[in-house]
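mind reviewing this fold:
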Amino acid sequence: MTADSPTSHEDGPTNKISQETRDRHLKAPRFVLPSQHWTAALQSPCRGAAAFRHVGVIPAEFTGRRGALAVRGAEEARTRPPRGGGGRFFGSRRGSGRKTPTSDSESNCGCTPGSAGVNQGERGSAEAQKELELREDEGRFQGYFRLSRAQFDDLLARIGARITLQDTNYRRSIPPEERLSICLRFLATGDSYRTIASSFRVGISTVSQIIPQVVTVIWESLVEEFMPVPGAEEWRSIAEEFEERWNFPLCCGAVDGKHIQMKAPPNSGSLYFNYKLHHSLVLLAVVDARYRFRVIDVGGYGRTSDGGIFANSAFGQALRAGTLDLPPNQHLPGADHRGSQPHVFVADEAFPLRPYLMRPFPGRGGLTLEQRIFNYRLSRARLVVEDAFGIWSSQWRMFRTLLEIHPEVVEKCVKATCVLHNFMRMSADGRAPACRGAVEQEEPLPGVRRMGANNATRDALNTRDVFMAHFCEEGAVPWQPAE
């Protein structure tokens, strides 16, 4: 018995239906069924209208004789063009933009809305073909996902089990590789959920659930390995790299903050409104000599300034309390007569001067040669954090757009991309920038304003003077300013 058969044990004979009833049902809006649906119905274990209900193209309430008539009407519609503005499509969205009756349950189970029966196989085959084409071209693959094929497979092996959902009798769940692809594509472009949903042929609500879930799993799975809290030995190793690469001894990292631009959340007032006249979250980061994020603090309100962000961050509080586990004081190279000095972090004028935090001498004019030499050496070491932000925002270009997502999702995306930045640089096939000039010179992320009062203590002033004297005498380099 074929799918268009008018009778079955469930539907019953149709010759008992009055002509009036038959005409009323046949004049109702018909279902335009692609040929794939007919093939799926023929392969279904059910018969007649039950087969079409099984593949999801006829509503469940179309039972008995009504279902048989619907099948006959569908067969007639298949042989001629649809009337008026087109037929009705179940499991998809038309011009009205209304959700399908099954969209809520589909989004809750993490499946693709509108992917009933062979529709989902159709979408899956298209995505598999796209991934196959991308994998054949390493450059296109890395440009699309921002990860090489080996990095993508490594990341999927680490998080795949945690982003895999269970298949149901209703439909198959989206596979983990596709969920990861959706997330990476959003991070790489910053496109709207609607655009991402159209690219991967899934529902908008599905994308809105996949992205927060996947970025959370990425952060939790990678942070312990690729962004652990440094101990005393790690801080000492970072200081040695700064001295070797950037000629700044006893430096444990460069500190800076950036604003992540986003759309104002509802009922937030001026909480996120910053001095750049847009709404933002603040990312505070410590970067080592190899452009890797070592400590990050994200979530500060854009309006916060004058010491609020730095002082209230976990990093700032640990520095102030002395619980950051920094190495003990040491002598500067070749300057034992100057006494032991603390390990420090370097920052710009937005940060306060502290014994553990060096900032340049203020002002552009009226500085002595020694002060200009100190500013040059400090800025040379501090530029690693600027370069790291440039590499990071160039890789994940969502941070060069206005983000129209909830602040909590923005925070999760920032954390995930920071740890992915380290993952890419520390993986075996990661590529380091050829030179400092390879980083784009534009500033996609606005910097932060003054983050603390300038009433430095005497110890902080003395520490800066000792570093300045060292850079001008035993620690001088040939290329620093001479006049």
User: Anything to note?
Assistant: The radius of gyration is 31 Å.
